[in-house]
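Invent a record, attention on tokens:
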Amino acid sequence: MTEQGETQPAMPPDDDVYCARHPRVATVLRCGRCGTPICPRCLVQTPVGARCPQCANVRRLPTFDVSPAYLLRGLGGGLAGGVAVGAVWGFITRGSSGFGGFFIFFIAIGIGYAIAEAVGLAANRRRGLGLQVCAVAGVLVAYFLHNLIAIEALLPERDPWGYIALLVAAAYAWMRLKF
């Protein structure tokens, strides 16, 4: 208090505290468990308060954590599914011209679903970008095998429904394994 009974405003302390992960950011926040200084960018809000990333135990969900072993299993599942689906698709459409028409959309969704399920089962229901690529590779294998069996050309010139089926099946398989 001063001589006239007025109070002085509180001055910030001279020793600023900086975030442990971002040394140039001054902060007044601390981890509720270990007391480490944290800034708003690195704090993790938990049911018991703000924590640093180490105390919050932040990690990826196991569903989205795809190791190289699961990626290889997914690739194997995608290729095996692509061969199976492509062979069935090729033998069913062999000798028919313009098979499917508008129904090719539903057939393509079934193809994408089957190959994405093969990848998912092989990779223990994991999801991620690598497995999405494996599923699209499986769709490509199915399409090429279908063409070799049914049309006897790898990339036919006049097959708009086939190209539409390829795009729809690849998009559906991609979305099915989206994370």
Strands lie at 29-30, 37-38, 44-46, 49-51.
